[in-house]
Amino acid sequence: MSEVLACRRLRGEAKPEIIDALQDEFDVLWEDASFVTEADRMTFSTAVVEVASNGVQHSVGSGDRPVELGVELTVTRNRLQASVSEYGAVEAPAGAQGEAAALELPAEDMESGRGLHLVRALVTTVVYERRDGANIWTLRKNTAS
Amino acid sequence: MVAAPKLREVVAEAVAAGNTRIVVNLSGTDFMDSSGLGALIGCLKLARQAGGDLRIACVEPQVQMVLELTSMNRVLKPHSSVEEAFSDE
User: Fold this and answer.
1) Whether the Cβ atoms of residue B41 and residue B72 lie closer than 8 Å to each other
2) Which of B33, B41, B42 has the CB atom closest to A49's CB atom?
3) ipTM here
4) CB contact (8 A) between residue B66 and residue A53
């Protein structure tokens, strides 16, 4: 296993504010992992924010409590990894489950449906799991360094 | 994500006021996700339905990347400046 060189975590209610907090966590992460190239930072953070935003906008609570979003970001020498978890959410629809998502882009005048296509173009692997009542997306990006 | 509804609101007001040729200056937008892209497409449709058009200018690298990876740069072609955006008319 490669040594973890930088790691950040956050968890909070799945509201738009958590996306700003996530952007702040990335700023700290890149300070701790300054060797990561600008291109890798941009592609990886775009993918993670896309999945997290998706959770804020589309996750549906399975109980009385609001859905919580958890994000863990990990940097090793050759890989950037993120897990984005929707706690207390009903299972994600099949079309939103990472690898299972449709390959084709929607028509040009459609206003939605590009998110997971974008994510898959940005990272090396996207894996969806349903575990302990949570939806968990794991994104991995192999880096050049 | 927070800016997307505001963009729709501003463009809808402009189109309703009869301003149907719209340039969105993206020089201050250093990050856009697919909901922001969706808002731009919605605004483009609104402007075109009113007989006008919507164009984008001063696109930052992250936004450029999102446009290219979704092939939406064919529909929302980035222009280098606000002035240049409608210079072909």
Assistant:
1) yes
2) B33
3) 0.90
4) no
Whole-angstrom distance, CA of residue B37 vs CA of residue A105: 13
Please state the rounded mean pLDDT for residues A95-102.
61
Mean residue pLDDT of chain B comes to 94
Average pLDDT, chain A: 91
Q: What is the mean pLDDT of residues A127-133?
A: 92
* N residues, chain B: 89
Q: Where are the alpha helices (DSSP H) in chain A?
A: 17-32, 38-58, 115-122
Q: Which residues of B touch A23 (CB under 8 A)?
A: 31
Average pLDDT over residues B8-16: 95
Q: Which residue, chain included where needed, has tokens 């970001």? A: A73
Q: Cα distance from A96 to chain B (closest Cα, Å)?
A: 14
Q: Contact B34/A105, CB-based, under 8 Å?
A: no
